[in-house]
Specification:
With about 140 residues, this protein is α+β, with helices and mostly antiparallel strands. Helices cover about 40% and strands about 25% of the residues.
Length: about 140
């Protein structure tokens, strides 16, 4: 039994800790809960932003790989003699394996060194509304 004029031990402990629980248990205050939720939301927003950037970067790299393969295939087609080696647009039929529209253009500069021509195969496409250009430069022998 307690002496008159003294407080119960559970109230004294609760007031000393600054937390008020119904039966003397420690509890979180509203401010602590709001701070914890705010930190959680900030972390989730940062994580989702990072994942979005990683996804966009992965898509851009995959598009670049597809265009590079297309440029190499078109250059091999020219080397094999299946298309004439002259400046101008290349047939779009070479665009197999690419998931988006690509325009191919061939620039030929005769060098005169043993029948070698300087060849630039250029691919242009749109990536998120912005034009992107990739080039492949090589030399091709062409009989004259």
């Amino acid at each position: 039994m307690r002496e008159p004029g003294t407080r119960p031990e559970s109230i004294a402990t609760s007031e000393a800790s600054g937390r008020h629980g119904g039966s003397g248990e420690l509890a979180f205050t509203l401010i602590e809960t709001l701070v914890a939720l705010t930190l959680l939301f900030v972390l989730l927003i940062g994580l989702s932003t990072g994942l979005l950037v990683a996804r966009r970067t992965s898509e851009a790299l995959e598009a670049r790989r597809q265009v590079d393969r297309l440029l190499e295939a078109s250059l091999e087609t020219l080397r094999a003699g299946e298309l004439p080696v002259r400046s101008g647009p290349l047939p779009i039929g070479l665009g197999a394996g690419v998931d988006f529209p690509v325009a191919l253009h061939l620039e030929v500069s005769p060098r005169g060194l043993g029948g070698l021509d300087l060849v630039v195969v250029r691919a242009t496409y749109l990536r998120r509304g912005h034009p992107v250009e990739r080039r492949l430069v090589s030399q091709i022998w062409s009989p004259r």
